[in-house]
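We treat protein structure as text, and this decision shapes the records that our systems exchange. The tokens are whole numbers drawn from a learned vocabulary of local backbone shapes. Below, we set out a record of this kind in full and without editing:
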Amino acid sequence: MPGAVLLAIALLPTPALSNQVVDLGHGVWDKTTHLEWLDLSLPARCSLADLNSATPGCSFYADGWQLATADMVRTLVAHAGFPLYSSPPDAGAIAFIQALGPTTIAVDPQDTDKVVTEIWGITADGDAGSGYTAPFVAWVQSQSGQPGSVFYGEVDHIQPGFVPDGFTTSYWLARPHVPAVPEPATTALLLAGLATVGAVARRRRG
């Protein structure tokens, strides 16, 4: 039964995000702060040191990504526009989790009726000695048909790579968003289209 529930979650259609946050396919773009946020599932198996190294699949700092602060994550969540707690689950919160992960889909070991789908990552708030602040967004579903919920929370003093009860932590990574430059062929088609529109307009005026 748990396997069937996990498969059903994986096959669910993606709900819509808010107008301020855009799904990029590898994360999201916050149009208000102009920050791009990396899918948390991508660096989940990397160490904190790996992010600033040449380790294959983990050298995200080389691509301009940086560990975000907890305040930056709170701002992103505010711009995403979903309530910090909702039951039944808010569709925008589910879309947010799906666009940024998830880092974990697992049966809750404390309550095996519940399946948890979440994103959870550490931020720059903290240090190696005391641990870091780790915000999360969790979507809880019941295998017995009870109403589920989605909620935002933060856990302090988390060490990188800390995996409690099978729930994986990752990293909240952000960088300035740079709009994609159109391919030369796309630009040529656009210019040709504009020229055609201009010619038609001139003929009509004539």
